[in-house]
Design a protein that fits this description.
Radius of gyration: 23 Å
Strand content: 15-25%
Distance between the termini: 53 Å
Number of strands: 21
Largest sheet: 9 strands, mixed
Number of helices: 12
Bound molecules: pyridoxal-5'-phosphate
Length: 426
Amino acid sequence: MTLAFERNGSLCVEGVSLADIAARFGTPCYVYSRAALTQAYLSYTDTLRAHGLIDRAMVCYAIKANSNLAVLNVFARLGAGFDIVSGGELARVLAAGGSPDKIVFSGVGKKPAEITEALKVGIHCFNIESASELTTLNEVAARLECIAKISLRVNPDVDAKTHPYISTGLKSSKFGVAYTEARAIYRHAASLENIKVVGIDCHIGSQILDPAPAAEAVDKLLALVDALAEDGIVIEHIDVGGGMGITYRSDEIAPSTAEYLAPTLAKLASRKEKLIFEPGRSLVGNAGLLLTRVDVLKHGIDKNFAIVDAAMNDLMRPAMYDAWHEIVKVQSTPVGADDTPLQKRTYEIVGPVCESGDWLGHDRNLALNEGDLLAILSAGAYGMAMASNYNTRPRAVEVMIDGCDAHLIRQRENAAQLFALESLLP
Ligand SMILES: *Cc1c(COP(=O)(O)O)cnc(C)c1O
């Protein structure tokens, strides 16, 4: 939320004004801050260091939250590992300079071709989500004459108390294996020739603001680790997943990384296993914003609409999860087009896409002129990563601010590129 601050009447990110960014790169434009990405990552490593756990911990950024190569590269340079969910994400991490031996591969439906690629580069661990997947992995590893290291994603059946679409740790979830079945699946895994059991993992949901469910999940994992030891199965690492929430609106205060992790780490301090963390949103969410321009103002009878040049295809979270993003003006414009003082009105902030669900903010009290720039805050996570080309809209440009420099890290697509892979009938 605090990424942009005002200087000389315009919002800035680090040393660059957003008005300058819009003039140089156009809108809609995702803007990220290298300093904010770095700070978020260091909040994890600093917390682990403070608990004396840094030497046996690995922070694996869950790249589905924002997989731009420059973002991945910032984390790779800081020494991060990566949590991937597809062969495409594996290729991205490698292209961005990530180390294969710090990659964990999650996901419920890994294809043999994706498994093959991951085995060839020697990733750290496959986070297995079903008994069937274990069989496939064993077969692929046998064909390649190698050993696949695995962790089992166990469903601890704790309620993360978050949006149902981003709650993943309940019994009813498609993710992971049931807690009560885990021990048997581990025994089966241990019997497979080309599989080596190395870990246990869980991931109970996303945008979690209460530290208690994560600690509760760890308790359950530890009980299982101890039961497995009785079966002669040694768990080398415990992966507690991601899920830490961020502040989207000022009346919803997220705990700091230190506060969120404290109860979890307290349970792990006396153990000997290595630890893995898979934060996504909390590393990138508040390190990015979406810059957009007001194209049309429509003052209606029931409602006022501000039609901006960003839309649901650029930022899907409001349409998909009913998510709330703070929307602020980039420059203060005291007067309207007719030189009279500009009044605040209540606006629906919407995009130009042909869907009633295409909204970015409801009931926002703003004094607007056509042509004004708006910043949609906390848009660094699950923003560009979920963007589509619906309505044949080129996706937004992405820019990374580093001090006083603004780097273009993804060009805007053009229409011809959008249909370049299509063909007419003969
Ligand atoms: C999405 C995901 C994460 C990251 O979740 P955040 O809420 O963004 O921190 C971590 N691990 C797995 C397995 C995931 O699917």
